[in-house]
Write the structure tokens for this entry.
Amino acid sequence: MGRTIRIGDQLVGDGQPVYIAAEIGINHNGDLGIARELIDVAARAGCDAVKFQKRTPEVCVPPEQRDRMRSTPWGEITYLEYRERVELGPAEYGSIDEHCRHEGIAWFASPWDEESVTFLEAFDPPAYKIASAALTDEALLKSVRSTGRTVVLSTGMSSLEQVDQAVDLLGTDDLLITHCTSSYPCPPDELNLRMIETLRNRYPCPIGYSGHEVGLPTTVVAVALGACYVERHITLDRAMWGSDHAASVEPGGFERLVHYIRVTETALGDGEKRVYESERPLMARVRRVYGAAGD
């Protein structure tokens, strides 16, 4: 079976279809209606899951940043107030859970603090994502690992030594590691997609890709290089207000991305040389057979 893990009822890893997660994150801008629309878009595109981000603002926002003013659709408010505005609560996540079940798509989230892990546990998620920013947060990693659920670890803004430390803490059972560069949007010369192979050689668990670039081709290349899990941010409109929309993929683009990934999976084949039946008629017409009598 190779190196595989399970996210919900799906196997992810060697020999399995690429698991495609649409990262809603906070692109819902605190609006449940937008969150539901994004779930619908991801389901129509053929994604396996949508992913959110969950924070406890008073825990996650450093004291020195809380009173900084920020221009928002709700006017000039403090950074703490902004973070509170874009968070969804129990009722909203209950609606999200019900809507995802109706649409037949999984959902999980990146908790940014231990209280958020407790919050999300109530919804029995199939996995947790450790955001790149949280890779060195040992308390959070221990909290997530204590749930016994599959963990997806993102490696942006991290050295290999820091990744090693996180993997040592988490263990490699039920762990998937994603290559990532934490720039929004990420320029092509910083994507470093060959890191997928480096990670595959370094760790005995499935390796995926979390991308923040503009465009689709490089994400498809990540699949060709061995990524068994792909995550891209999703938005209704890249011009919407918010920090992540510019590095996100719009509905039509996500449909194309899923299609390109599925075509690429088929095209990669198994690496065994063979003559296909479709080749035989042409072979009979154009190939000269050497070694015949008189040659």
Observations:
- The first helix runs from residue 32 to 45.
- Residues 4-286 form a domain with the TIM Barrel fold (CATH 3.20.20.70).
- The mean pLDDT is 95.
